[in-house]
Task: structure prediction
Amino acid sequence: MEEFLSSCRQAVQVSTDQAEPTFHVVLGNEACDVDSMVSALAYAYFLSKTARSDALAVPLLNIRQADLVLRSDNVFLLRQTGFSPDLLLFRDQLDLRGLQQAGRLRLTLVDHNVLPSADRDLEGAVVEVIDHHLQEREPSPTCPVTVEMVGSCATLVTERIIQKAPEILDQQLAQLLYATILLDCVNMAPAAGKVTPKDSQYAAALEARFPTLPPRGALFQALQNAKFDVSGLNTEQMLLKDMKAVSGSLNLAVSVLYITLEEFLQKAELEAELSDFCQKFGLELLLLMTISFTESKEPIRDLAVFSHSTTCREQVSQYLEQARNPALNLCPISSPHPHITAYQQGNTLASRKKILPIIKDFLKERDGDGRLGDVEEEESQVPPTPMNSLVEGCPLDDGLPCISAQALEERFRKMADRGGD
Result:
């Protein structure tokens, strides 16, 4: 597969001539999580071995090359399976619009089934879709759509490979697919509510074909540890790793940090770095949510509010302190920085998914002039990050799921009921 990836990079580098062949680009979603990355890599490789076409199949990561470092679990999995990140192609390295205008682009979408508004002009190039999210695209004779609500898009790609071209599977590709299915399906734990029978079927199929794949538990835990690893990131990268921007009369962002608040507040020149970050992205306030875990996997959440505007900082802090739906149970703690208000968060179940509505209510009340429709999440300045599903209601918020016999019995009963419908 490395030879295939190298040939893709070489073809892109010499593709300026309009007479060059068509590119069949396999594109994951903008978050570019492990599932999107691996599904694009594996399916493009499958097309390169099976498609009866002169088009060159190319996997494209739907982020800038500089943003890969924010996806620490992606980088970890690549290196664990022996792939150099230098072999990959990124969105800022291939001009999709130029290819389309030249009539040289075909697009297969994996891990999403509709293009975002910024890419809607590429719609005419879409020739196939493989996805596991809610279907928003209508199938057409020119664009076959495969959408199944399984735990991982990699499951559907694995199914296609095993059914159509099992001979292209080797240990390296199998481990990429296997690790992705495990990660998306929370180590195949039924209590997590992610895994489906098809996910289990193809994870088992990969295990049967490649008995030396790493043990499930060890591989899943290594990927989880990598997902939370921020040791190589600077302050800006840590803030961008998992950030949502919200705009109304006040532009602010909520960043989830995988580090203790105490450790973060001890960073040298922190206020200057936060100020630079806000100026760069047009923000007036930053809400920092930290999450870490005890030895028994219990979550620890803390919260901090940064703004050079004392009024803004105090208004947001007071609103969060007084919030009742849900109550955050905030306890003020000492902050070494004059423009940062810090709290211990007693309600450890209140993830960003629960706090964002509180922030939006604050903005609506602050506007107070009928502009309620103007409060919205902003995605334009900062690209989507792959961690949102984790912090907005992840089954691991309370540690790894404990699977009781009763839980398993209930899960199988529900599966049987659905099967009888």
